[in-house]
Amino acid sequence: MKFYQLSREQRLDALKASGDLDTQSYELMLKNQPIPAEIAANMVENQITQYALPEGVVQDVLINGTCYQIPLVTEEPSVIAAANNSAKLVRQWGGFQVTAKRGGLIGQIVFDHVSDIETKAQLLKTKADEIQAIAASAYPSILKRGGGLRQQKVTIVGQDFLKLELLVDTKAAMGANMVNSICEAVAQAASQWLQQPPLLAILSNHALEDLTTVTLKLPVTALTRGHLSGQTVAQRIVAATEFAQLDINRAVTHNKGIMNGAIGVVQGYGNDTRAISAGIHSYAAQSGQYQPLSQWRLVDTDLIGQLTLPLPIGAVGGSIGIVPLAKANQQLGQATDPLIMQAQIATIGLASNLAALRALVTEGIQKGHMHLQYKALAIQAGATGSEIDWLQNALSQQPIVNLAIARQLLVEKSKTEKSATHDHRN
Ligand code: MEV
């Protein structure tokens, strides 16, 4: 049986048998447990319950020659199936190639309505050693781990804003608390030097220091679909990307298809999806016009796809240490190093984009999407157990599909079964 045809328990057994899940992660996932009540109660204000989402695995994703099982959390039925299809295809042609860098997170300390601004900018520049010392004492543990404040930059913005930017090497952490603590400590001292309070002191989610680029190369022959040649499919994928470069309505949706996969992995690794999304969209708008994040081109008989994302991901800190599943997912994904997480997130982004574009420029998106949506509809209609797959298939045969039709099919099924039992008894 194929992995997707197994029961949830059988899938976990398979992952344990292959050595991808250790006993602890296996048991945690098998129990399907929410976050321990006490942890959840202390994570947020006014906690009333927990909101769960399904998690699946994108299997055997070949990145720089290593094969990964990548956890992905999503409520959208087609995302994991689509990423898996692309991962399987790309694996046959050498896999994904990734380069990832990690340069640190920027913190900003901003003063407004600054008079005699040139002099004050110079003054801040003379304080570099003191700023370095304040940063060190604001967050000493990062120095022990080999990180800390790396660069300082003073800039005049507009007429009278003065900005001090600090680049902090956060090591394996995303580092939001670290950078914010350092910024607030430095802001306090700077306000004394400048004789005015800061307007704000906070990290920036514009994370150009952590760019991650993934590339894939497929022979066009691998893209053949029905009566469409691989060459035609590849040309149409390139054309769809060119259109997205010219049209913002399409660019946003093109990027949404990338985020489907990328953000699902960010979520699985217990990171801040809002921070990553904000950073990615600011990167897409860098040129002044919001652009598609991936590029697709035809070189001779190969289709080449490339995606660059800013990914300031953390492997420690934040909620990661307290949400047990985030740790188990790191174990499953062999991703305790943020560079590996960055590589996986970008890769699943590109894999999702390939699946979406390939479907869009051939048979359209609804065929694959709807079949998976029918499962959710079947559950909504009241199907349970084996009825779910039955109703999903029955709905696929219908010219029109909606909840009323799903309910009606279920009622008819149960009537037919009852009368069969009755006939049998008589
Ligand atoms: C749907 O979740 C994502 C797509 O709309 C992406 C795209 O259009 O490229 C299919």
- The helicity comes to 40-55%
Which residues sit in consecutive blocks of at least 5 with pLDDT less than 50? Answer: none
Question: How do the SSEs run, as a string of H and E?
Answer: HHHEEHEEHHHEEHEEHHHEEHHHHH
Number of strands: 10
- CATH domain fold name of the largest domain: 3-hydroxy-3-methylglutaryl-coenzyme A Reductase, Chain A, domain 2
Structure description:
There is one protein chain. 50% of the residues lie in helices and 18% in strands. α2 packs across α12 and α10 crosses α13. A hairpin with a 3-residue loop joins β5 and β6. It has a four-stranded antiparallel beta sheet with strand order 3-8-10-9. The chain has a four-stranded antiparallel beta sheet with strand order 5-6-4-7. It folds into three domains: 198 residues, 3-hydroxy-3-methylglutaryl-coenzyme A Reductase, Chain A, domain 2 (Alpha-Beta Complex); 99 residues, 2-Layer Sandwich (Alpha-Beta Plaits); 58 residues, Helicase, Ruva Protein, domain 3, CATH 1.10.8. The chain binds (R)-mevalonate. (R)-mevalonate binds next to α10 and α13.
Question: Summed up, what is this model?
Answer:
This protein has 426 residues and is of the alpha+beta class.
Q: What would the keywords be for this entry?
A:
four-stranded antiparallel β-sheet, 3-hydroxy-3-methylglutaryl-coenzyme A Reductase, Chain A, domain 2, binds (R)-mevalonate, Helicase, Ruva Protein, domain 3, 50% helix, Alpha-Beta Plaits, 426 residues, hydroxymethylglutaryl-CoA reductase (NADH) activity, 3 domains, alpha+beta
